[in-house]
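Protein modeling request. Please complete all fields; requests missing the sequence field cannot be processed.
Requester role: graduate student
Desired output: 3D structure, token encoding
Chains: 1
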Amino acid sequence: MNEQITPPPPPCNVNKREFWVDVSKTILIFVMVVGHCNPYLWVRTLIYGCHMPAFFIISGYLYKPHDWKKTTKSFFIPIVFFSLINLMAVLINYTDGTPFPDDFLKKCLYPFFMFSYEYGIPLVRGVWFVICLYFCRLLFGDIPFTNPIRKFIYPIAIVCIVFLSLRFLMPESILHHKLNSLYLIRTVACIPFFAFGIWCKEHSDLLQKIPRCVVYILFPVYIAGCFMNGGIDIWAEDYGVNYFFSFIISVIGFWLLYRGTRLTIFSGAASVFQIFSTGTFFVLGTHILLRDVYWRWLGINKSTNWYQAILTGVVIMLLCYYPIKILIKKCPILIGK
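Delivered output (337 residues):
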């Protein structure tokens, strides 16, 4: 008697690439560039409603614990690489005879540890995001002894939300203390978004069940919320009306991004989105330098309108495309891979 043997199921590809992630990261890095091109205030307000929180959410969604040494290399080798490139550009500006400030080295190092509006020479704009993400990863699993903390990530996130929502009750001496500018302290504001990303991964089936028609309701809610709140800028510790309100607006913005990027209209450019998604570190590390060179070539001052900002963003993305492709093949560690 012949027994019918059922073939085993094909192995599950746990590392399967999710297309919406590539599209989302590409859109987010593009609007980050536009936001750094000084567009009109209303454009900046809509961008800052969720673009950096969404990066943390996606980072949490994709998070898988790695050895902290590997994480350190993948984060800080690119930082050193792009810092050296941008440092050369800064030094060129002093070739016209402008004297070096006595605290030049301190000004270059300062932005790697804490934020400052007036003091410091930022060699990598957006480095705060990388450092805060690094702390999030170390806290929730990349260091072995922090693994138990991962079990309490949601209560910790709730505590962070409550603490930041009530921070207005703290004395001014604490709110404006120099230590409050450290990126390690700024990480407190990033943890809820990172944790929400982990929650989204654990409940991805629930996200997909939400009807797309809700977009038509939440889209105007997001726009109204951004203008009521004024956007969120974690780097500057600006949470608008209230951190909790900012968190809700950012989550709505992320969900709109999530639903929008799952549309089939993006599928024709899958390989392009994958390149930019893989090379977001390259855009982060070079976009200010490319922006300044492009503006100088066109004779544009630092106050641009919305379409100049968008055009600058498009040009920068195009300039970054082939260098990213080359680095992916030749030296991926320089873009954190």
